[in-house]
Amino acid sequence: MARTAALIYIIATLATRCLHAGGFDAPLPDVERAKLDQLATHALAMADKSYTDQKFQQATAEYEAFIKLYAKSPAIPYAMFQKARCLHLGGDPGEAIQAYDTLIDVFPTLLPYAVPALYFMAEGHVQNQDIPNAIKTWTEMVSDKDYRRHPLAAVVINKLAPNLRALNKTEEAMKMYRQGAVDFRSGNPEQALQSMNALLEYYIVTAPNEPELRKLFKDAGGFERTAMTVDPKEDVAQNRLYWQQVWGRVVAGANTFTTVQIDSKRKLLAYWAEAFKGRFPDWKEYQEQLAAFTLPVL
Hints:
Layout: H1 2-19, H2 30-33, H3 38-52, H4 56-69, H5 76-89, H6 93-106, H7 111-127, H8 131-143, H9 151-166, H10 170-183, H11 189-206, H12 210-220, H13 240-254, H14 262-276, H15 284-294
């Protein structure tokens, strides 16, 4: 019961934060707006102004009128999305969910609108305290072969993965984090870094796994915010930068242990002392650090 309550709190907190954060809009491209005639341009501009002024009820009516009057307009997907957003931001998540669903049904392959619609549909479920449907919707988003490539999928990954861990579905959580860390290095670097940090914490501190780190380093192009090029044929075990980055994170992770966790800290240091030894005999700095690192373990 307590775990269920905790999951609801975590997801609801994240959803509420994102709902008002902005940055997830689906604007109408200038090339599409240029195709509208003068009357349609004016009608859409009026609706957009009401939306910008947060007059959501008025904007809803104006977008609805546009949809009815200009049914064949290239701006219809945009108007449908904006109408749904107005309903949502205006405090009616139930109606918004239906509007998002209609948009997805009509334009399922129009990713700039369908993916944000699916994202916000899940948030509507959260506001309605329908957590199972929220999770189902977000999972659908990160599982679809096309939707999963949208930058918003990276946000969803960082919502779902912590909750999978809370449910002891650790393997699924790490797989999801890996998708976020590798697939969104350029598309959504902030969220990719968040996923990366979760993976590093797990494979360095919680469940040390150096071979898995090597794979991650190669596939993601390093561990830092900006990806680097790593030759697929390179033996990462011989990459000095890799070991420097791992080393710093091991030391930082070890420093998070309290005095009552001394046994766990010793196990952590023992694992990494074993992983570090026997490498780079001609690298003086590395050997000096290794000697200082292994001293408290022996």
